Amino acid sequence: MKLTVRNIGPIKEATLEIGDKTVIVGPNNSGKTFLATAFYSLVNLPITPHDDYSLTDIDLSQNENEIKFKKDELERFITYSLTKYFGIPINKIITVGENEGVIENDNVKITLKKDGKVEVEIKKKLKSVIRYREGKLGRGVVRLVKVDNEIIEMEFEGDKGIPSHVINIIITEYALRTVFSMGWDPTAFISVERIAFRSFKPLISFSVFSPFRDTPLKPLSLDSLRWIKPIELEIFGHKVRVEINLNGLPTIRAFLNGEEVVPSSGIDQFAIIESVARNPDVRGMIIEEPEITLHLDAEIEAGRRLSRYDKKLFITTHGGYLTMTMAYLLREKVKVYELVNGKAEERKVTEDGL
Fold this sequence. Notes:
Blueprint: E1 2-8, E2 11-17, E3 21-25, H1 32-43, E4 56-57, E5 64-69, H2 71-86, H3 90-93, E6 100-104, E7 108-113, E8 118-122, E9 126-134, E10 142-148, E11 151-156, H4 164-181, E12 187-191, H5 197-209, E13 231-235, E14 238-244, E15 250-256, E16 259-261, H6 265-277, E17 284-288, H7 296-308, E18 312-317, H8 320-330, E19 334-340, E20 343-346
Parallel strand pairs: 3-18, 3-19, 9-11, 12-17, 17-18
Antiparallel strand pairs: 1-2, 1-6, 4-5, 5-9, 6-7, 7-8, 10-11, 13-14, 14-15, 15-16, 19-20
């Protein structure tokens, strides 16, 4: 997948070839968070912000169709998604002094305007052949069985067929995932500096349970909570258990020589990353600064762990040692970019892993 981000926050121009493993290196305020959020906005769109309208236009009397998006509805939907993920209005996402910004992949181009509007250009034509088949799910139940080579198979039970609004939802989900996510959905956003669970538990509780709209947490701070699974593992010489308490929040317990100890911040943060990585439902992970509290030996170990994950990874980091470790272990399987003065410059990984 090719990702282009232009005039978004500090990013003047970034054109990246996104493979299964991509690492973005840069100093503070270089645009790493804007780049990660822009990528997340493409690959992990919510299915619909509202249930009272459809994003796609299709003739349900025909089994074979070209799927078309409704322009006004799609642009309203994208505006909703971008403001939700960035946490600021559209005109504030654009680089100061510029009139428009762009987020683009192979299939879609999103242009953000200074007046707060969003224009969406769909570059890929979508076709679908819908096949229905009876199943044993119970009357009135429908589920997507398979999407393969533009064939959507739906299984249902009942003598009245599948309701049209259900078919529209399935087609919309298929169209969004095909055009935008390109194999990355679902993707978890893990901002390590934002998940210091022990330090910020009161803020997290306030954010989750507050009756007020505004919370003290940055957007996407809690995204990883959706994907955490209970696990037991070893991290940095400790046996670690991730448990889910009655409030649905993770509790991290660490043991050294059989005795329970207070987990370090490094164990806290990497236990969350490891837990999400072991969730079979997660296809991609966007990880911001996985090395943030780690000393050099732990940073190198973190690079080893990340290199072994069977997930698609988009990592932003300050960490030279983490990046070098992943480059050495993955060689041509990792893409490395450095943000310099608002532009992304590729750093080639040699066959020796340097």
